[in-house]
Design a protein that fits this description.
single chain, alpha+beta, four-stranded antiparallel β-sheet, 10 strands, 12% helix, elongated
C-alpha cells in the first residue's frame, strides 16, 4: 500500500506563490504635444540665427529673437537665440625675434632679426649663415665652431642655423 500525503515529491521543484504583474503603464501622449514643438522651435531658432542675408547689416548691435509657443494647455515653451553669429578674431603671428632660444634653422627677417648675436655657450657650439635652406654645402655663407661665439646675421642671409649653442642674444 502506498502512503500518499499532501507533501511534494523530492523530485519536483517547489512551487512558488503566484506572481501578480502590474498592468502596463498608460503611454504618455502629452510628451508628443510638448516634445515635438520644442524640437521644431529650436530648429527654427538655429536656422534663423545663421543669417542667410546677402545684404550688409548696419553697425548696430543685433537684437535677441524670442519665439514663444503654447503647445498644450497649461504649459509654455520659450526658445531664445541670438540674432547675429559671433565674430571670429584671429591673432596676428609674432614678428621676428632678437633672441634665438633653440637649435634649428631660423629664417632671417620672418623668424629672426638681422644683427649681431652672441652665444654664452662654453661647449661645442656650431652655427652657420645660409644662402638657402636646401641643405647643400653650397648653401653655407659662413660658419663657426667653439665656445662663446659671436656672429653677424645680414639682411641678405636666407637663414641662420644653430646647434648646441644655447641662447643667442642680439647685442647690436
Amino acid at each position: 500500500m502506498s502512503n500518499h500525503t499532501d507533501h511534494q515529491s523530492p523530485l519536483q521543484p517547489p512551487t512558488s506563490p503566484p506572481q501578480h504583474f502590474a498592468p502596463p503603464k498608460k503611454r504618455r501622449r502629452w510628451i508628443h504635444w510638448i516634445g515635438y514643438p520644442i524640437v521644431f522651435l529650436i530648429g527654427l531658432a538655429v536656422a534663423g540665427a545663421g543669417g542667410g542675408s546677402d545684404t550688409p547689416t548696419s553697425g548696430t548691435p543685433g537684437a535677441t529673437v524670442t519665439v514663444t509657443a503654447k503647445p498644450a494647455p497649461g504649459s509654455k515653451v520659450t526658445v531664445t537665440a541670438p540674432a547675429k553669429p559671433a565674430k571670429t578674431i584671429t591673432a596676428q603671428p609674432a614678428g621676428p625675434s632678437d633672441t634665438i632660444t633653440d637649435d634649428g634653422t631660423w629664417l632671417v627677417g620672418s623668424e629672426v632679426k638681422p644683427g649681431t648675436y652672441r652665444s654664452q655657450n662654453f661647449g661645442d657650439c656650431y652655427w652657420a649663415r645660409l644662402r638657402s635652406t636646401d641643405g647643400g654645402i653650397n648653401a653655407i655663407i659662413d660658419n663657426g665652431l667653439g665656445p662663446n661665439q659671436t656672429v653677424t646675421i645680414k639682411r641678405t642671409d636666407k637663414a641662420f642655423e644653430t646647434a648646441r649653442c644655447g641662447v643667442w642674444k642680439k647685442i647690436r
